[in-house]
């Protein structure tokens, strides 16, 4: 267990606690660009990392009544089958071949760029969504399942999307729901999705267990500290900085 991985877990956990943005958009590019792990290993390890670190959030939000389980179910109707099919597809290709690495890196870069915009737009959408008209229940349910399907593909392929992008999309689909319930519902869906996708990657052999443990050792105190500091630091500027970093990293991976 390298001290640098434990420290990285702490820093990412701290930022997650401060901003609420998921670790996938931060941890995966860090492992790829800084520590030079193969992209597939970084993604697979990060998926299980995300499922474990977000589990505490589900317990907390559940106790506070901030989870709409019907929406979670509809999201999973799309995301779990999509994740299974994407894992099946990944099993049939050489994840370390240059051409496939380029495709995965490009997909990861696109996901990070979209996430950077989602981080910026999220507060604006949250303010304006209350004025939007609600859709029919049936149409909203179908759109929720389709959202889950999209997230299932994206998260399994890149480990990015379950956090900021999921919250932003839910804000558009459920304009009258409080932000606390949106976040709680998104986290409750992210845990089974990242766990299922992570186990799929474990079956593919793209999870580094020792790296995973190192990251967890650092991230748990980092998340605790970040959560306690979040009320004392201006989140707006942190979100801008985070969005710029994600945009730059995303562009680097797209090149």
Kindly describe this structure:
The chain is mainly alpha-helical and about 260 residues long. It is about 80% helix and about 0% strand. It has one domain (about 5-255). The longest helix is centred in the middle third of the chain and has 31 residues, at about 100-130. The mean pLDDT is about 90.
Would you kindly provide a brief summary of this structure?
This protein is mainly α. It has one domain.
How do the helices and strands line up, and which of them pair or pack?
Layout: H1 3-19, H2 24-34, H3 39-63, H4 69-91, H5 98-128, H6 137-158, H7 164-173, H8 179-204, H9 209-229, H10 235-254
Helix pairs in contact: 1-9, 2-3, 3-8, 3-9, 4-6, 4-8, 5-7, 5-10, 6-7, 7-8
- The residue ranges in which pLDDT falls below 50 over 5 or more consecutive positions are none
* Residue fraction in strands: under 5%
Q: Which percent bin holds the helix content?
A: over 70%
- How far do the termini sit from each other? 32 Å
Largest sheet: none
Total number of helical segments?
10
Decide which structural class fits the backbone: mainly alpha
Please tell me how large the radius of gyration is: 17 Å
What sequence of helices (H) and strands (E) makes up the elements? HHHHHHHHHH
- How many structural domains? 1
Shape: globular
Mean pLDDT: 88
- Count of extended strands: 0
């Amino acid at each position: 267990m390298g001290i640098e991985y434990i420290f990285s877990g702490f820093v990412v956990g701290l930022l997650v606690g401060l901003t609420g943005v998921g670790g996938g958009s931060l941890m995966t590019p860090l492992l790829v660009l800084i520590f030079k792990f193969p992209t597939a290993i970084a993604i697979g390890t990060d998926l299980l990392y995300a499922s474990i670190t977000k589990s505490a959030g589900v317990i907390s939000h559940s106790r506070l009544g901030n989870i709409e389980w019907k929406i979670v179910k509809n999201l999973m109707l799309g995301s779990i089958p999509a994740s299974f099919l994407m894992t099946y597809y990944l099993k049939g290709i050489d994840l370390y071949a240059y051409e496939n690495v380029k495709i995965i890196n490009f997909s990861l870069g696109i996901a990070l760029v979209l996430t950077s915009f989602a981080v910026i737009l999220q507060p604006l959408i949250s303010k304006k969504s209350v004025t939007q008209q609600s859709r029919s229940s049936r149409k909203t349910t179908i759109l929720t399942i389709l959202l889950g399907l999209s997230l299932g593909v994206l998260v399994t392929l890149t480990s990015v999307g379950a956090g900021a992008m999921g919250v932003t999309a839910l804000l558009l689909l459920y304009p009258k729901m409080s932000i606390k319930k949106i976040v709680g519902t998104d986290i409750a869906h992210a845990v089974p999705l990242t766990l299922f996708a992570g186990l799929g990657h474990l079956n593919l052999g793209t999870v580094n267990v020792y790296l995973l443990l190192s990251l967890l050792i650092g991230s748990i105190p980092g998340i605790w500290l970040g959560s306690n500091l979040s009320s004392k630091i201006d989140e707006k500027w942190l979100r801008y900085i985070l969005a710029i970093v994600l945009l730059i990293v995303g562009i680097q991976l797209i090149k």
